[in-house]
Amino acid sequence: MIKTRFAPSPTGYLHIGSLRTALYAYLLAKKKSGHFILRIEDTDRARFVDDGVANILKSLYWAGVVPDEGVVRGADGEPSEAGENGPYTQSLRLPIYKKYVDELIANDHAYYCFCSAERLDEVRKLQELNKQPTGYDGNCRNVTREEAEARIKAGEKFVVRMKMPRTGETKINDLIRGEVVFKNELIDDQVILKSDGFPTYHLAVVVDDHFMEITHIIRGEEWLSSTPKHVQLYKYFGWEIPAFAHLPLLLNTDGSKLSKRQGDVSVDDYRKKGYLPEALINFVAFLGWNPGGEKEMYSLAELIQDYSIEKTAKKGAVFNLEKLDWYNKQYIKLMSAESFALACWPYLAKAGLVPNEVDKKKLSEIIPALSLEKERVARLDEITTAVGYLISEPTDYPPEILVWKKSNRTDALKNLELIQGFLSEWKGEWKKEILETETKKWIADNGLTNGDILWPLRVALSGLEKSPGSFEIMAVLGSEKTLARLKKAITKLSA
RNA sequence: GGCGCUAUCGUCUAAUGGUUAGGACACGAGCUUUUCAAGCUUGUAAUCGGAGUUCGAUUCUCCGUAGCGCUACCA
């Protein structure tokens, strides 16, 4: 069985780029009926964020990228664990790492290093000055085991470094990039155990991926350069080397690595703004991967169906918000009136337009109003301003906007009075189609133009320069509110 | 500086050793129209540069250029 994993470090909320990485790992696993594992890499104690794990889980589940194994969401909604090869949180695996560090040292594949930060700094500065490749100079390789043990016993701070071979080369066969070759002599003796007793990423990732039986490592391109270190560790341990796939990066508009400075990067930010998970997944999946056809809309199930890692792009992709908006609009249009209303509820509640708790009666009441906007909004958070006028009466719009561009204030007032008269004597059924045909007939019969009447009418009802059409609004509002708003507009304009 | 990766419309991408280099977003125009949105029709727009291989290269090779990543006791 193939196993893939997503291994974020909880140093913040789930990044949109990480979501894509997780998605690809998930798709590959699902495509091949394998397992997708979530492992938490919390070895960096300095950058640890308290609710990081909770947020990562929440965002992943929201998006539908649900782990089969590892850290999962428990019945109570809190993080818990599933699977045979745990724990799946690195800070809980310290003894395991210790054991394998000791093994490397015993086999002379790693050594204790006592160099101070200051010395390391100096070495690097000198290397830079002489335009030499930077890296550890191997100073502590010469320290004997006895001396090292004595110094440790004396309380000296130390780290453990892996011994990189000084000759030969390491070849990587990347699923996306093909063969990549590195000269061993240019690769650093990487620190694998920090002075705080925690392993670094490089050691932990190899040990965990091995014991968690990961077959395909899918991760960002930023890891490509350190892969030879990982390969060397696999060789030292005598473990089977998994397949690697290094994904291209997600980019800002200026081509740099996607960052907070230039906009929202957390999945949660997008959720809050009213992007649907389907839209975000579809969009993000197509940033660096494409099945080849001309179909743009892909559900998660269809993505699994058509996924193949070979079709992954090699080039970084700019995160293009306009296209995301387009996707979101498409998926909103696809929703039923009711699920759209339900999705909008929290936004309306926040604006005080509806109670916090979903109320069945109120829900069915607002569905007609919301449906007017379902085809129009790009994001759910736009709904409050978009339908606010339907739920509560608009009062503070400037009277000038009641005047059509081809008309003037005097005529607008006159026309409002005319339509008010016509509608107050309405005998027919108050339905959109009937209202529309009859009103338009009346307009024509009286030698008026649609714009003369319909523009001020629409603004009187909505208080907005841009809104759905007059007849749709009238149908939602009913005759009483329609007439009341017309009256208000007439007052406004005659003031 | 070193090492590595990458290079098709503004953006996301498709395609092939031979095509009018296709689609989507965005943008422009037109239709529709009371506004916006939607819809329909339509337009502008790309193979980084130079060599080589070849009858033929955007596609294969090399060089250059540019961008990006890594170069931490961060991941």
Description of the molecule:
This protein is of the alpha/beta class. Helix content is 46%, strand content 11%. The protein has 19 helices and 13 strands. The protein has helices spanning 16-31, 52-63, 94-106, 117-129, 145-153, 201-211, 227-237, 267-272, 277-285, 300-306, 321-334, 337-350, 360-374, 383-391, 409-424, 432-445, 450-462, 470-477, 479-494, and strands at residues 3-6, 35-38, 69-73, 79-82, 110-113, 159-162, 169-174, 178-183, 191-193, 216-220, 243-247, 250-251, 317-318. A four-stranded mixed beta sheet has the order 1-2-3-4, with helices on both faces. The protein has a three-stranded antiparallel beta sheet with strand order 5-6-9. Strands 7-8 form a two-stranded antiparallel sheet. A hairpin with a 5-residue loop joins β3 (69-73) and β4. It is elongated, with a radius of gyration of 32 Å. The termini are far apart. The protein binds one RNA strand of 75 nucleotides through α4, β8, β13, α11 and α17.
